[in-house]
């Protein structure tokens, strides 16, 4: 198995600087060209790379600064996929929630162009030698879970298995190969669906769509493994699990137990970023399924709010997790990105620095030189 760059890591996205948000607005109004926007994005990415390296991170992302949403911008560029733009809804208690976009498969899924290649090449050009540029892409399960069978064209796919899963895996394989050819060695797939399947409300919604929530994790494990089977040699492939992160809200809660065996034991991945920042995630017992050779990155530091965690509390929680999985197979990170969508979380820019420094310092103290 390929090893993580360090015992401390992060999920990927960062708060967008004001000038980048303004440039996006100008582009939407037609006041600047896509090329002009890209020049502004380049500047912002150069700055966020330096920020990550100054904090001491070894795994470096572009902050997802070229995206509006963590998943739509990528999936929309696959052949055969269309998404309905999500809208913000006001919940009865006055809080806001992102009504999740429904991704529809309207034709055969295929890789019609290299989606992340140019973005990766720019990121790589900015990252210092010795550090590892990381590419974040949405998990392929996003094309199934939100819409279920009804969201996938029966004309294109009279039967889902194996044609749909094979086509999606082949498209992902093409993307991974294009990245590997450019020197990418670290790719993270962001997945909300397995974490959602820990929540009884979400499990019931899956039943209403005609899916069995007990069977789905195992089906998704086989699906992910079709992608892993095409992973280029020397590439680390990780999965990040998230229960929702729109403007510091969450969409799901629940212990990992319903999905743990399929996730940790059945999926042939190298590493898992698992949310553990509050009681929504349950206890560490599901980590008992972690086989040798894999790493779980404990997301103990929240990105939703600015209050800084206590270092001793983090160490105690790592100790608790180590009762179920060996300490040498664990690492530390924030629980999610700071800005899964362009809107960002309810957290100050400087809090990002403090949170990440805490992660780096704590990990170095727990695991030594890391």
UniProtKB/TrEMBL annotation:
GO terms for molecular function: 5-methyltetrahydropteroyltriglutamate-homocysteine S-methyltransferase activity; zinc ion binding. InterPro entries: Met_Synth_C/arc, UROD/MetE-like_sf. Transmembrane segments: none annotated. It comes from the Bacteria. Its EC number is 2.1.1.14. Keywords: Methyltransferase, Transferase. One of its GO terms (biological process) is methionine biosynthetic process. CDD domains: CIMS_C_terminal_like. NCBIfam families: PRK06520.1. This is 5-methyltetrahydropteroyltriglutamate--homocysteine S-methyltransferase. It comes from Rhodoferax sediminis. The lineage of its organism: Bacteria, Pseudomonadati, Pseudomonadota, Betaproteobacteria, Burkholderiales.
């Amino acid at each position: 198995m390929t090893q993580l760059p360090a015992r401390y890591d992060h999920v990927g996205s960062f708060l967008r600087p004001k000038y980048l948000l303004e440039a996006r607005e100008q582009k939407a109004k037609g006041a600047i060209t896509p090329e002009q926007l890209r020049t502004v994005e380049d500047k912002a990415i150069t700055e966020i790379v330096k920020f990550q390296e100054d904090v001491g991170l070894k795994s470096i992302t572009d902050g997802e600064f070229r995206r509006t949403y963590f998943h739509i911008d990528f999936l929309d560029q696959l052949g055969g996929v269309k998404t309905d733009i999500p809208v913000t809804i006001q919940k009865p208690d006055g809080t806001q929630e992102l009504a999740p976009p429904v991704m529809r498969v309207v034709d055969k899924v295929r890789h019609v162009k290299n989606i992340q290649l140019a973005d990766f090449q720019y990121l790589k050009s900015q990252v210092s030698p010795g550090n590892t540029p990381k590419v974040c892409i949405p998990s392929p399960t996003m094309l199934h879970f939100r819409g279920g069978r009804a969201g996938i064209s029966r004309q294109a796919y009279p039967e889902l298995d194996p044609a749909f899963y094979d086509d999606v895996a082949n498209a992902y394989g093409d993307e991974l190969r294009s990245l590997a050819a450019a020197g990418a060695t670290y790719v993270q797939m962001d997945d909300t669906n397995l974490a959602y399947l820990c929540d009884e409300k979400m499990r019931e919604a899956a039943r209403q769509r005609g899916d069995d929530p007990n069977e789905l994790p195992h089906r998704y494990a086989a699906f992910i493994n079709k992608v892993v089977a095409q992973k280029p040699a020397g590439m680390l492939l990780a999965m990040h699990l998230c229960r929702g992160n729109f403007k510091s809200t969450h969409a799901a809660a629940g212990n990992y137990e319903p999905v743990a065996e399929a996730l940790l034991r059945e999926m042939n991945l190298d590493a898992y970023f698992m949310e553990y920042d509050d009681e929504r995630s349950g206890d560490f017992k599901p980590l008992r399924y972690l086989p040798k050779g894999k790493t779980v990155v404990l997301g103990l530091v929240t990105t939703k709010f600015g209050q800084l965690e206590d270092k001793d509390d983090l160490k105690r929680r790592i100790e608790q997790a180590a009762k179920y999985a060996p300490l040498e197979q664990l690492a530390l990170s924030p629980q999610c990105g700071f800005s899964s969508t362009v809107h960002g979380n309810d957290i100050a820019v400087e809090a990002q620095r403090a949170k990440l420094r805490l992660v780096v310092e704590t990990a170095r103290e727990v695991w030594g030189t890391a």
